Amino acid sequence: MTGVYEKRVRSDGFDVFCDGGLWANNPVIVALVEALRIVGDRDEEIEIFSLGSCGKPEGEVIGEHEVHRGLLEWKLGGEAAKVSIAAQEFAFDRIARSLVRHLKNRVRIIRFPSEKIPGALLQYLDLDETRPDGLEALMRQARHDADMTNSGIQQGTADGQAIQALFNDMLPRVA
């Protein structure tokens, strides 16, 4: 796991900032809190678009004799960090969706692409992956994800319509 951090020196000490992936790998809760701060007491609709990036298939099948893992089996904490990040990604979506039911504002969370990726892509999902076949596999997956999103737009699903409106709002206005 890597993380970018910045240390800013002030006269009374310093601030340290870290990459959001280290503490909010799925920033949907951060987005929800920020949106609520922005709208304040106004009764405005909030839409959060969460663009995913190849979430790994979850879970691992282990035998009963493998349940008690030590430091080496957890690869000195590296495997525990992966489990923590995966749990965070899942939990933040669940927490946000559970929380919105209790808010006065109408909040809509749209995650795209929303499908799990095929297990065959696992070998290509490391941060430093640069093999040509890995890059090609990831580009194929990106095209598939774009096609699935476009299909929702073409079919006029509620999420597809919201995504289309989002992209149309980004287009420059011609006078």
Explained architecture:
The protein is of the alpha+beta class. Strand 3 (about 45-50), helix 2 and strand 4 form a beta-alpha-beta unit. It has four helices and four strands, in the order E-E-H-E-H-E-H-H. The chain has a two-stranded antiparallel ribbon with strand order 1-2. Helix content is about 40%, strand content about 15%. It has helices at about 30-40, 80-100, 130-155, 160-170, and strands spanning about 5-10, 15-20, 45-50, 105-110. Helix 3 (about 130-155) crosses helix 4. It has one domain. The radius of gyration is 20 Å and the shape is globular. The chain starts with a strand and ends in a 5-residue tail after the last helix.
Topology:
Blueprint: E1 5-10, E2 13-18, H1 28-39, E3 46-51, H2 78-99, E4 107-112, H3 132-155, H4 158-170
Parallel strand pairs: 3-4
Antiparallel strand pairs: 1-2
Helix pairs in contact: 3-4
Radius of gyration: 20 Å
Strand runs, count: 4
- SSE sequence, one letter per element: EEHEHEHH
Give me the oligomer status. Answer: single chain
Helix content: 40-55%
Uncertain runs: 1-5
Give the CA-CA distance, first to last residue: 47 Å
Main sheet?
2 strands, antiparallel
**In the residues, how many domains can be counted?**
1
Output the strand order for the largest sheet.
1-2
On the 0-100 scale, what is the average pLDDT? Answer: 78
Tell me the β content: 5-15%
Number of helices: 4
Structural class: alpha+beta
Using the alpha-carbon principal axes, give the shape. globular
